[in-house]
Amino acid sequence: MSTTATAKKPGSDESTESIGASIRAAFTTNLRQSGIFIAFIAIVILFTFLTEGTLLTGQNVTNIILQYSYILVLAIGMVIVIIGGHIDLSVGSVVAFSGAVSAVLVIKNGMPWWVGVLAAIGVGILVGAWQGFWVAFVGIPAFITTLAGMLMFRGATYLTLENISLSPFPAEYARIGVGFQNGLLGGPGYDVFTLVVFAIAVAAYIFTQFRQRAAAVSYNQHVAAMPLFIVKLVAVAAVVMWLSWLLANNRGLPNVLIILTILVIVYTLVTTRTVFGRNVYAIGGNLTAATLSGVKVKWVNFGIMLNMGFLAGVAGVLFGARSNGAQPGAGNMFELDAIAASFIGGAAVTGGVGKVTGAIIGGLIMATMTNGMQLIGWDQSLQNIVKGLVLLLAVAFDVYNKRRAGASR
Amino acid sequence: MAENILEMHSITKTFPGVKALEDVELRVEKGEIHAICGENGAGKSTLMKVLSGVYPYGTYDGKIVFQGKEARYHSIKESEHAGVVIIHQELALVPHLTVAENIFLGNERKGRFGLIDWNEANTQAIELMHQVGLDENPTTPVGQLGVGKQQLIEIAKALSKDVSLLILDEPTAALNDSDSQHLLDLMKRLRDEQGITSIMISHKLNEIEYVADTTTIIRDGQTIETLDMSDPESNQDRIIRGMVGRELENRYPPKTGRHVGEELFRVENWSVNHPTQPDRIVIDNASFDVKAGEVVGIAGLMGAGRTELAMSVFGRTYGRHGSGKVYKRGKEIHTRSVAECIQNGIAYATEDRKRYGLNLIDDIRHNISAAGIHKLTSNGWINTNEELKVAQEYRVAMNIKTPSVLQKAGNLSGGNQQKVVLSKWMYTDADVVILDEPTRGIDVGAKYEIYTIINKLASEGKAVVIISSELPELLGTCDRIFTLAFGRITGQLPIDEANPEALMKLMTQERTAKPAAASAGEGK
Ligand SMILES: Nc1ncnc2c1ncn2[C@@H]1O[C@H](COP(=O)(O)OP(=O)(O)OP(=O)(O)O)[C@@H](O)[C@H]1O
Ligand SMILES: [Mg+2]
Asked: Coiled-coil ranges per the record (chain B) (predicted)?
């Protein structure tokens, strides 16, 4: 059929919101999104005080990145699983298993480090395919399939490692997890290279933001008022450059941060701009409607699980590199951290809703809290109670919000 | 003048970006049947949700006076306690629970020690069912009953709560004519025998004419007028004028510009078995065809297998495939999956939008692009700007009432949701379009718009198949009508030979040769 768009002139007042409207939108329609950012900032400030500034030293920020990268990688996969209406309880065991295979090849059998890396990722993919097969084609709920997987792959880890830990990895392997890019451009007491990389990234970010805004305006879509838009960009740029300053003054740019950034960009695009991503939201939102709209549900489910396996393999490499070896008990409870990160980041328990960036922020909230509490010297038991409460409150906030949105005046 | 059981004064209710109600006034006399009419999205359901505490006191402006007292309900429980019971647009029964369990859900008859006394409950359930003219075993799971009976169970449930004001939101939308008639008569009986006041929302104006004592018309969130239905002036045309604000000359647009051409689509000897009872035949050797530029209707009673036929053809989304072939332009094609159907230019807009048609938690934009997403994709990437543009174009072309296509589909009124479903399928550029109950729950004005769209599709040389339980609709839009009874095609009539009596006769034709193995397949 032929339809004609109502042509408005680009940049007219109708598509650009007033400042007031933008702020209001941030607090009403986008409350959940802005809420999680605000919560994150609040938690950072709180723990900066409680730790008397230690939280935000270059040393500690570097540490947080190294220590939680694998949880963040898992959270990316997990939020996609959750959007699709599933859950994956096996990721901790898969991290351990893929790391174990890798360690046996490299440490025991003396294979080159890259064989170990590929093997770990390969194991992750195979496990993903295995679980995907049961979930998608046999129709076993993911909860059950991955509960079984959690047991099976933990068992497989013990078998592979013959109940003992293996270490150390060759330096190249370990460098993936604990290495840095620095010194390439020298620098008087701080690493110029790190600063340059970050500056390029910020410039690219600002460029794409402007392009998106221009596109949105030309398609007559509502955009935030210009001053607010600028304020947002400046704020993001400032925070990121400050972070780079911290890193540059410490050991430079962590390799895991590069890997993580690439994954976040790729998966943000996958979820928002590809048919696969769209299909994941569709089947999580209404399975029958998706089927009747031509979504190949089985293959999408298979893809979701396969991808989770792949990312668990990647996390397995990062964790192995960081801990410089493989332990039979590695990765215990990682799945719970990843699930918690997704839900804190705004994923809906019933599926169909969630964002990769949300899960990352959710993961950072968990990371900041855990690290902060460790710095203060709180007991592990207390840490768990606090983390549990935060998860509960985050979801409760969501539920409350939804109810309010329905009944709002 | 009799006293008013309910007065609603200047009710205003806004959602983010939408003013759903503005200074609405409603007065309902004790013991009357009061109809509320209005276009899709006019605010009818919202008004009833305000009244029944779904939107609690404080989330709207205005004043409600019920039985002389100001009402400030904070929840449905509170309004029910006061005697206001609402039966929502979508049935809210739990299919796996029994009739009695459903009737007393949330209102359990407790005996000693606070345990439920099931004997007592079942006996009372029988009594309540009797009041609504049902004779079912109280221990039957509700899911096994037809929609018509389920609707009556909803009313029995309401009666169990000592209702004095019964609100029915489009109660007959999913019912066939005889079930509807039964329900309307029941409303009259409840009024005359028990003095129960009812408020009924409906888009079926003939029903309103039949049952209502008074009609209030709402347009764009405002009360337009209240008509006394005993006044002979208050006929259907009068109501339509109030609803749409102008005269609507015809209910159906003229079938101009149609040129019926070659055969475009044909289904031959199609047989399908029940998904869980493999030896039950639901569709038995059905054949039908539709030509380019032609609109073909499929008429059948509830349970005849209309939806089952369509869904089994459309990507085998229903039942177990038995046998049969599908042809397009004379060449055999396969329709084994929905994707294959879309590729072959076949579209099927489902009957139940909420359950099968839309992703309610996603926005309108994504719903519109869902089936035709390949058109927006290059190298695997979706052009999201283009997607937005497409959605906005359809919003304008289909007159979808919403401030923005970024609104969630679940926030739309029923009729507008249907337009989103239609937009989705029109965007796939299909040339065989199967529409299952395309105007269920849709107001007269929007119906006219949808008929116009159907006309347009036909005049573009597409083949349209309409499944509908409203015979006038089929007679008003189709060129040819097939009848389906007990899973078999029992005949076809060209439009100039078709009339309700002739169709009805074919629609009720029992099978002659074999005994009725495929007794009315009531859904799944
Ligand atoms: N929860 C909500 N959030 C936002 N907008 C809403 C919400 N509920 C309803 N609306 C909007 O309020 C208006 C009135 O909706 P309502 O459901 O009352 O219409 P209706 O008269 O019952 O229509 P129909 O005949 O199609 O059922 C519509 O524009 C609808 O989009
Ligand atoms: Mg309604």
From this structure: none
Same domain for B305 and B197: no
**Same-domain check for residues B175 and B243:** yes
Helix axes A171-178, A255-273, angle to 10 degrees: 60
Q: Cβ B338–A286 below 8 Å, yes or no?
A: no
Q: Which residues pair with B271 in a beta bridge?
A: B323
Residue B352, domain member (yes or no): no
- Buried b / exposed e along A362-388 (16+ C-beta atoms within 10 A): bbbbbbbbbbbbebeeeeeeebeeebe
Give the per-residue pLDDT at A278.
Answer: 94
Same domain assignment for residues B438 and B524: yes
Taking an 8 Å cut-off on Cβ atoms, the answer to whether A285 and B362 are in contact is: yes
Residue type, A90: S
- The answer to whether A278 contacts chain B (CB < 8 Å) is yes
B267 token code pair:
């289904």
Question: Residue A28 pLDDT more than 70?
Answer: no
Q: Does A28 touch chain B (CB under 8 A)?
A: yes
In this prediction, residue B374 has a pLDDT band, given cuts at 50, 70 and 90, of very high
Atom of ligand 1 nearest to the CA of B414: 26
Q: How far is A357 from chain B (nearest CA, A)?
A: 18
Number of domains observed in the structure of chain B: 4
Cα-to-centroid distance, B503 and ligand 2 (Å): 31
The per-residue pLDDT for range A353-373, each reduced to its tens digit, is 999 999 999 999 999 999 999
CATH number of the domain bearing residue B472: 3.40.50.300
Same domain, B276 and B366: no
Q: Measure B389 CA to nearest chain A CA, in Å.
A: 6
Q: Is B44 in the pocket of ligand 1 (CB under 6 A)?
A: yes
What are B175-222's pLDDT values in tens digits? 777 888 989 999 999 999 999 999 999 988 889 999 999 999 998 889
Out of A133-147, A210-224, B165-179, pick the least confident.
Answer: A210-224
Residue B416 CB partners (closer than 8 Å, separation 6+)? B40, B41, B400, B401, B402
Q: In one letter, which amino acid is A384?
A: N
